[in-house]
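# step 3/5: fold
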Amino acid sequence: GELSGFVVTFDDISELQSAQRKAAWADVARRIAHEIKNPLTPIQLAAERLKRKYQHRITDDRETFEVCTDTIVRQVEDIGRMVDEFSAFARMPAPVMREEDLVGLVREQLVLQRSARSDIRFALISEEDRLTLRCDARQVRQVLTNLLQNAVDAIEASEVPRDGEVNATILAVPGAIRVEISDNGRGLPPEDRDSLTEPYVTTREKGTGLGLAIVKKIMEDHDGQLDMHDRDGGGAVMSLLFPLELDESLDGSLASNSAGDQFGPAAAAASAED
């Protein structure tokens, strides 16, 4: 009957707490999106109607009238995009997995970014011309769009004037495919980097704090990983690790055709035509 010792057990509830936080934030996002979206359309329509009806009648300071109405419409559109992010986070659907060409998906998003930002150099670095992966193409496009946009924002926010540069590097590693999005922008904050993937945490003045949260959620749904680290020489690197299912349908898909695309205007046009 003597007490000879103790048994102590520990349960890691980190994933449970993370899931509970995400569920709570998703509910908040859903409510915010609903409450904000309702008045947006009437506001935008009213401003557009005011401009159409009165811009030719106003003779005194017409320019101010046009600037003010255009500002209302533009700001409403910005709020609408924020609401769309809230909705996307709250209603993230389960991924529909199909065999997709990951190199093609990355190239496609780089072409789109290059056409929008000709002042920034976008480059695709890949030893393979095609890498087949089971994934949800729409969600992977969302991941790439968010990370590329973050890279552009980081370059714009950099305190050191420099030519903007964004590289997308694709690597076939044992059992997986790694995609690294690197930029020479202002870089990652020195502290609390893990919190950047939490909902509503942002370092940008007009950020919603949902971009990286959505990326992390999509990567988790693909059994993948999102890692962040500093880029040599300044800037940041966002690393995506997609597990590769080497079944019969995927075996041998890692065709080794050398490819290194520089996304200048001519290359972007050629890629768009493929």
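# step 4/5: annotate
The longest strand covers residues 165-173.
# step 5/5: archive (pending)
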